[in-house]
Amino acid sequence: MSKDKKPVTQDRKKRRSLRKALRTRIRRHLITTADRKVRKVVEKALPTFTKPDAKVGFLTPLLRQRVTVPKAQEAWLIALTERFLAHRFDLLGSGWVLNRYGVGCSGTEGVCYSEADVLSSQPEDCARRVNRANREISFWIRSVIDRHFEPLDWQRDLRSGYRWSEESWHGDIRYMRKDMKASIHPGVDVKFPWEMGRMQHLPALALAYEAARRDRPGFCTAEMYRLEFCHTFLDFHAANPPRYGVQWSSPMDVAIRAVTLIFTRELFRTAGALFSEDFEHILTSSIEDHLEFTYKELEYWQELRGNHYLANIAGIVIMAAALPQSPKSDARLAFGIRELIHETQCQFHPDGANFEGSTSYHRLSAEAVLYASSVVLGLSRERLTALQNYDHTLHKRLPKLPPGPLPMYPREGFSEELPSPPASVETEIDPEEVEVQRQQALREKRRRTLKRQLEALERAERAARVAENEQSDDTTLESKRTKQRKKVTQEEELKAIGVIVEKMVEAVESDTEEVSEEPQGTPSSPEEESPGPEETLIDASLTPLPGWMIQRLRQMARFAGAISKPHGRIIQIGDNDNGRFFKLLATSITETVDSSRSWERTTNAVPTEDHLNHRELHAALDSLFDTPLVTNTTHPVSDLIQGLTGGRFTASIVESVQSPPRLVSDGTEEAMSPLPPSDEITWGELEDELWRLGKNRSLDENFSHQVVETHFPLKGDLLGNLRHTSYPGFGLHCIVTDGLWLAVRCGPPGQNGNGGHDHRDQLHMELTLRNKDIVRDPGTGYYTPVPELRNAYRGAEAHYTAVPKGWSEANPLPWLFQLRDHFETRVLYLGPEGFVGEHTGYGFTLRRWVVLKPHLLRVVDVAMDAPEDLSLVVTVPPTTHDGKALAFSPGYGQFDPMPVEKRLK
Length: 905
Prior knowledge:
Blueprint: H1 10-45, H2 74-85, E1 88-90, E2 96-98, H3 123-128, H4 132-144, H5 191-197, H6 202-213, H7 222-239, H8 251-270, H9 277-296, H10 307-322, H11 327-347, H12 359-377, H13 381-386, E3 409-410, H14 431-469, H15 477-510, E4 542-543, H16 547-562, E5 588-592, E6 605-609, H17 615-622, H18 636-645, H19 683-699, E7 706-713, E8 723-727, E9 732-736, E10 740-745, E11 765-769, E12 772-775, H20 787-794, E13 801-804, H21 807-810, E14 825-831, E15 834-839, E16 845-853, E17 856-864, E18 872-875, E19 880-881, E20 884-885, H22 900-904
Antiparallel strand pairs: 1-2, 3-4, 5-6, 7-17, 8-9, 9-10, 10-11, 11-12, 13-18, 14-15, 15-16, 16-17, 19-20
Helix pairs in contact: 2-6, 4-7, 6-7, 6-8, 7-9, 8-9, 8-10, 9-10, 10-11, 10-12, 12-18, 14-15, 16-17, 17-18
């Protein structure tokens, strides 16, 4: 044996493997700690745009029918689109303001930033503001936009005037202080550019386009609406490269924006609009950018997930379904469907209420589940079949994606036939125009097929030449000549075939007669081939959504109806930030303003969105079922949902499906606390206890209970046809009669105890008599721009409840999006006699009696075993803040001192 080599013993092998493993761990640790910085440096040096690729194709059609606006809503649509075409927007209580570079601002509570007022709106200057690596592509995109289009400023808070930079890396943007108690810059609201970036005004342009195609009076030309949609999207795409700017700092808003773009394109397409191939390729590449960003930046936390993660998942489902089919999109779609089912079970109680503890966030989350589920229900059989064999190794994020197949469930009560539109909706269109569009589509389809065949022939020619050159050199001269003659003959045949194909393309372009959908005598393209015997398509009656999830959607509709008052507006429990997952046509309130404003050209009636009216959600949920649960009114969103799903569910199938219990963040089942049985605590016992408390208070000076009583007179008999409903998971209990609407908040904090969108409103009561609000929640106001005002609106003094004097000053509110007050709640009675509930949030038991009498509503608050120095105060909104009345806030950033009953008259 050589001296240079030593025998490799087992110990040496072990030491080598240990050293190698140690070096690997060190390298991995170094890469992990520097991964974000390295990735940022690399991505900053390269363009982040996904280049439009003709081989990828266009977005997959998702909508199966045209969406039409009823005549009764056309005036509202005309008023909206007039302002949108003029680039005026009403966002987050700003009023109708002009959005363009260099425009002034009104300020937020006296705070105003004006450094952005001098920016130029020239396309060249706008393109130079993006980072250097993306500048060339931004120039090219802006070259497609019409020179007369006025660019929008997507980076600015139009209320305060503060502006973010297009060159800022999305991970470097900070808008909250480290202590999470205020915005970094006073008065600045990052929600404003986010809301603008969602582009939720675009679907209204598509509806106006459809109405203009039917020659409805009052609308502009249809082409104006189509061009406004195209230019708005291209302007955003050029000004906001992926991962740069404030528009890419929130994955939730990225997903919502992508859904808006996809559905708007579908609304235009079904209305007969045609787009250029360049535009379709740019839109498809942009949706790919949105999908990958949302997927890689998932707002997922094992301990706590909320509406942000739910919007991420719903957006992934819709984006993956809309993109052309590929192994990656199939894996993304399978992941999205699995997580959508799981999060619906986690974030919604079995009674349909959302776990956020906010009635407005119930609409946002319910819309996310509804639209994503509608797209899943409408997936083609080919797409469902592909989902059974998706590649789970393409998924690299948490939570993990198990391998296929995706479970399928029977879709009972499903009909593939689309329901006919309502008789009151006018859908007649010129048949000649429809036929012309049909012929154009058929010719375009045949042109693409022949083009693919020609490319296949050229590929075959190149393959033959390569094979010919690889022949061995020992071939005889005679065989070479023979092969050369054969090669010339083959080339002549290929050229002849190419000439024939080109002539066929020219004939298709010039042909005006009816063309069959499939060219005769030519083989079908590989994309259009039907599956072979080894690939059997899934039955159309199967769906990845289990039956309990359809029932959960039905329960969401019931809760949405329960929180709506007789006049149509909802009760505001928790935060209200006007958030919508998708907005088709909002409900309106018309206000009158000074007609001398220069931009009021035709009327002095200003359309204002009513954020407390959830009629669109009601109609969207009702459209899934044959029997309406909430409303019978006509709304175009019904056509949208039915066009996405391809059919309806019958009302009978969901009643028999057993719904699983809701899961909390750690995966355990929720422990629901239903109301106690009637034989455990009777109303008689509670009434006797209340009588004894009142008697002892009047006789005993050392009485340890404090009692505060309030009376509301009821004029006339308002207690007929009494119904009561309880949602214990959410903590809302309602009593409804023919003339009275009463709701009491008594339940656990939202978000599984985090209380991010909760208010200190335990035992808060809302009262409406004959459609007039007597007591109501004041609303939300702002989030981060004015933290003092936010805390004032969510404090206990802003609600109709009892609170010890000085308790709020001694217990200030924590972070702006956290409210972890430790307390227990219990409902003792809910029935025809009234309501009795209690909570322990103040260190003692506070009990509230709500007693219904024929002509009197009696509210009694009792501090049980309270300290001797306690002074119990009952606050009735509106209260004061800094010496000023706390105005009613019907929406985010809106302050309405006018009583709502005057507006509703």
